[in-house]
């Protein structure tokens, strides 16, 4: 196995000790049952091309989207085996002559195949970071999802009411903070008292533990004019409630459908084994 370029080994800057082979996770069959979809593959170490780097992964991001990717939902034309994992954080262990990176330099990246001991990466996808801290990982998939959603679709305005479902989750917590920074009143759903306290600590105005309070009744009673913007990632009944409680000219951003990720179709299973997409009542 080799990199995409024709760089001679003498032109490549390499760390003193690099293994001759490494392991990575591969999607070997399409199924939403992640453990069944994955196999471990051992591959030979790569000499990077002139505009490539080899990264020793130290941290990787685990996302709900990994389940959808391994089920073949993002790209129906993608045939196993293929690599899995969207984001990584590590140290450059080998760098092509034109890569602009140094051996030992910490970088972050967004690229398929992060679930691997080492990653061969086109240098244009490498993002220099000050140090190796796991806290940088959520900024990429989770943070960018929230930021792009609000910037491109949400059209947040100061004083508006924003509802964020799964608000204590990976991307939800970013959405809470961004909405507050935009001057909005923020409602956030969660499932435990500990998450309620966490949401308060990051500025959520009205955290709701949906296991103890009825979301529809809370919104109907406390927000009779409706919600201006919804950042929705749960689906099923939660989706229905959000649609029904939208204000006039409200915007609903669907960024996920967690309740259906593990089903064969991607929708939430109902009685009798059938599945249905969300229903608006």
Automatic annotation (TrEMBL):
Residues in Enoyl reductase (ER) domain copies: 33-277
EC class (word): oxidoreductase
A single cellular component GO annotation: mitochondrion
UniProt GO molecular function: 15-oxoprostaglandin 13-reductase [NAD(P)+] activity; zinc ion binding
SUPFAM superfamilies: GroES-like (SSF50129), NAD(P)-binding Rossmann-fold domains (SSF51735)
E.C. number(s) listed in UniProt: 1.3.1.48
Pfam family, one: ADH_N
Domain of life: Eukaryota
SMART domains: PKS_ER (SM00829)
Keywords: Oxidoreductase
Family statement: Belongs to the zinc-containing alcohol dehydrogenase family. Quinone oxidoreductase subfamily.
Protein name: 15-oxoprostaglandin 13-reductase
Species lineage: Eukaryota, Metazoa, Chordata, Cephalochordata, Leptocardii
């Amino acid at each position: 196995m080799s990199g995409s370029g024709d760089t001679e080994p003498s032109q490549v800057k390499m760390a003193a000790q690099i293994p001759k082979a490494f392991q990575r996770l591969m999607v070997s069959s399409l199924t939403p049952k992640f453990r069944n979809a994955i196999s471990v593959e051992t591959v030979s170490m790569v000499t990077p091309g002139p505009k490539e780097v080899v990264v020793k992964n130290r941290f990787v991001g685990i996302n709900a989207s990994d389940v959808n990717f391994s089920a073949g939902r993002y790209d129906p034309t993608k045939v196993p085996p293929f690599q899995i994992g969207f984001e990584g954080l590590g140290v450059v262990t080998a760098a092509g002559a034109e890569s602009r990176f140094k051996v030992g330099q910490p970088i972050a990246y967004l690229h398929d195949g992060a679930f691997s001991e080492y990653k061969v990466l086109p240098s244009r996808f490498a993002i220099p970071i000050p140090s190796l801290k796991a806290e940088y990982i959520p900024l990429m998939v989770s943070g960018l999802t929230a930021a792009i959603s609000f910037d491109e679709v949400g059209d947040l305005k100061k004083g508006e009411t924003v509802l964020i479902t799964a608000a204590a989750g990976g991307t939800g917590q970013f959405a809470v903070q961004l909405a507050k920074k935009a001057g909005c009143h923020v409602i956030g759903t969660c499932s435990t008292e500990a998450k309620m306290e966490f949401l308060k600590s990051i500025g959520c105005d009205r955290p709701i533990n949906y296991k103890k309070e009825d979301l529809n009744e809370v919104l109907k009673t406390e927000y009779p004019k409706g919600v201006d913007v919804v950042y929705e990632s749960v689906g099923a009944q939660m989706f229905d409630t959000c649609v029904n409680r939208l204000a006039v000219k409200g915007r609903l951003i669907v960024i996920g459908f967690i309740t259906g990720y593990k089903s064969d179709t991607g929708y939430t299973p109902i009685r009798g084994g059938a599945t249905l997409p969300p229903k608006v009542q």
